[in-house]
Amino acid sequence: MSLFALPDLGEGLQEAEIVAWHVAEGDRVVAEQPLLSVETEKAVVEIPSPRAGRIVRLLARSGDRVRVGSPIVAFDEAPHADTGAIVGDLGPQASRTATSSAAPVMAAPTVRAMARELGVDIAQVAGSGPGGAVTRADVARVFEAKAGASLGGELKGVRRSMALNMARAHAEVVPATVWDEADIQPWWSREADVTGRLVRAIAVACGAVPALNAWFNGATMICRQKPQVDLGIAVDTEEGLVVPVLRDVGNRDAAVVRRERNRLAQAARNRTITLADMRHPTITLSNFGMLAGRQAALVVMPPQVAIVGAGRIFEQLVGDATGSAFHHMLPLSITFDHRAVTGGEAARFLGAMIKDLQQPK
């Protein structure tokens, strides 16, 4: 009998929630046949069989959280070739992961900060990283167990992923926010594509102030500016916040970007969004004003260094030497990681956005 473990899902993901099994014990399967669907980082992914054979036992149930590298299926015979995802007897594994309370805890500063923010005693966390080091996933697991005990149940799926991401951002980022408004009255028609104009303005601003279209590694203190703008678009769904990514928005036709934006939003709400559609955003937009709210200090998700907010359009009395009138104003904010971005850079970025938004279509 051989075991098949949950394979590496990429992006440093450590675990996934089993959504559904597509096979049963006793079934014979062929290589690449879908075995199960899992949800992680807000996407549902099918895991194919690494080989042909008969399934002796399913080692996890729908709804279980499973760590990468943990066995999920037992086959009745040895595989024909090593797939890199087959694991041997895991009997001693539990004893190998146990840690001594007297031993020094190995953990990165960002992991220790996350533990402090969540109220987790890092000395009581069993580390799963290299050499027994405590990882963010280890801290999150202990925190979730405590939350589940106190609240009677754990968050799952998209909301669970959102909670973990927010905890990580809170532990790592040093946020600051700049606010302003764009006077869109003379330039925009009633049929204006607000999100489309915002996408274009962000691309223009990234060209003017590239420091905000970047990734920052707090551990190495290295900030890398990105050559193209891959814009995360926050989408509100019934399950929680999902952030698909519009690729290379600065070099694509507006109509093409609009079609892709609609496709991604629909996929996010239908829960058919893929991991590939959510990987590697370089900056994010939250157009929360479509719902309510004028201004917000939003959450920067590392390794990104900035997120743009657009609030609800409102009327404001504007006057000059020729008289006064009510104009439509679009509230804007830029929340940035002050470790990697200066206040001046953020203000110039917002100014570049406003200049573009106050141009004719």
Strand percent estimate: 25-35%
Order of helices and strands: EEEEEEEEEHHHHEHEEEEEEHEEEEH
Question: How would you sum up the major sheet?
Answer: 7 strands, mixed
Question: What would you call the structural class?
Answer: alpha+beta
Ranges where pLDDT stays below 50 over 5 or more residues in a row are 80-102
Total count of helical runs of at least 4 residues: 7
The shape is globular
What's the alpha carbon Rg, rounded to whole Å? Answer: 24 Å
Characterize the quaternary organization of these chains: single chain
Total DSSP E strands: 20
Describe this structure in words.
The termini are far apart. The chain is 26% helix and 27% strand. α2 (109-118) packs parallel to α3 and α2 crosses α4. Strands 10, 13, 16, 17, 18, 19 and 20 form a seven-stranded mixed sheet that branches. A five-stranded antiparallel sheet has the order 3-6-8-1-9, with no helix packed on it. It has a four-stranded antiparallel sheet with strand order 5-4-2-7. The protein is an alpha+beta fold and 361 residues long. The chain contains seven helices and 20 strands.
